[in-house]
Design a protein that fits this description.
This protein has 379 residues and is α/β, with parallel strands linked by helices. It is 43% helix and 14% strand. Strand 8, helix 10 and strand 9 (282-285) form a beta-alpha-beta unit. Helix 8 packs across helix 9.
Length: 379
């Protein structure tokens, strides 16, 4: 256990409230990790693209999808000087967890030397949920405890599991079945992770696809989160040792009515206030296909709100919205590595400022404004 005074006090309080309930043996470490990732000015770099997804990214810059190139690219990200000033955690794909730097240092150890915490994607993808209009549930519970124990041994201290829901007002999606099934899967995953020492990122992503309004997105997001937190309670998950990775509340990608950054921030914060318990320390948003600049400005707008209390750290867990310009700058060429690192650092710094509500805009120029939306996105 990590003998941090604040964490141990929290564990004592949790045990008192739980009474005869179940408290994970790693409780103090879980609490400390979840809080550390939400430290002011920092957030998560999501570098957990599967081999198939990174193939699409590499194809856009005409780079072969080989293990050597994947190692080279992830090393570029992790070795960026001063990245630890803005990044508190990195989510990896399993292959990356066991890769090493050119000097022979395992990537988790390389990150640990910078004070950055390693995370691991643990779900195995989605399958269609029978009895629904093409809705899905997430797989990966079989053997999860053993895998989590192995990942903890390799240096991981948090995990990610992505549930995917969609809005379709014509067919009534998300259905009650979809919300119940995905909430229960997230809760079982979270309980298993905590039993093995990993902080679970709970990610119920509602896709941007569709013509729905921002008001309808807010209604659905609140309902989905209500199902999720009921399931987490039923599974005795220690909320102080979790993180939430939600979508921002936005109109659908095909909506005829656009919204301002201020409107998005208002609807998102108010929805979270209704549905997310204050015991949760860190909310790290997904970018959901927004441009790099949009994702940063939206995060900044939420943190700039002072009229209502926000009992959690509001930060980022971005993949495309941190890497798109960096990948383009690298283009698979060794002579571009330093330039690509500078591009990544600039974007990470911008998002770090956004967690404080102090981002002035303009980082990355025109490249950062390019849309990254992909319909029915999967990775």
């Amino acid at each position: 256990l990590v003998h941090d005074h604040t964490s141990l006090v929290l564990v004592g309080l949790v045990a008192t409230v739980a009474g005869a309930g179940w408290t994970p043996k790693h409780a103090a470490e879980l609490i400390k990790t979840a809080k550390a990732i939400g430290a002011p000015g920092k957030g998560i770099l999501a570098a957990d693209e599967s081999t198939g997804t990174i193939a699409k990214r590499f194809a856009s810059i005409n780079v072969e999808n080989s293990e050597a190139n994947r190692q080279k690219y992830r090393q570029l990200l992790f070795k960026t000087p001063k990245i630890e000033e803005h990044i508190s955690g990195v989510i990896m794909y399993e292959e990356t967890l066991y890769q090493k730097s050119d000097e022979g240092t395992p990537f988790p150890d390389l990150l640990k030397s910078k004070g950055v915490i390693t995370g691991i994607k643990v779900d195995t993808g989605v399958v269609e949920l029978p009895g629904t209009h093409g809705e899905t549930s997430t797989t990966g519970l079989d053997g999860l405890a053993k895998r989590c124990a192995k990942y903890y041994e390799a240096g991981a201290r948090f995990a990610k599991w992505r549930a995917v829901l969609k809005i379709d007002e014509k067919t009534g999606c998300p259905s009650t079945l979809s919300m119940q099934e995905n909430a229960w899967g997230l809760a079982r995953y979270a309980a298993i992770c905590q039993s093995e020492g990993l902080v679970p990122i709970v990610e119920p992503e509602i896709l941007m696809d569709g013509p729905h309004s921002i008001e309808h997105c807010a209604k659905v997001t609140e309902e989905v989160l209500s199902y999720v937190y009921k399931a987490l309670a039923d599974n005795h998950v220690l909320l102080e040792g979790t993180m939430l990775k939600p979508n921002m509340v936005c109109p659908g990608s095909e909506s005829s009515k656009a919204c301002t950054t201020a409107e998005m921030a208002f609807h998102t914060v108010m929805t979270l206030r209704k549905a997310v318990p204050p015991a949760v320390p860190t909310i790290c948003f997904l970018s959901g296909g927004q441009s790099e600049e949009e994702a940063t400005l939206n995060l900044n707008a939420m943190n700039a709100i002072t009229a209502v209390s926000k009992p959690w750290s509001l930060t980022f867990s971005y993949g495309r919205a941190l890497q798109a310009s960096c990948l383009k700058a690298w283009a698979g060429k060794d002579e571009n590595i330093e330039k690509a690192k500078q591009v990544l650092l600039e974007r990470a710094k911008a998002n770090g400022e956004a967690t404080l509500g102090k981002y002035a805009g303009g980082a990355g120029g025109a490249d950062a404004a390019q849309k990254l939306f992909v319909k029915n996105y999967s990775y």
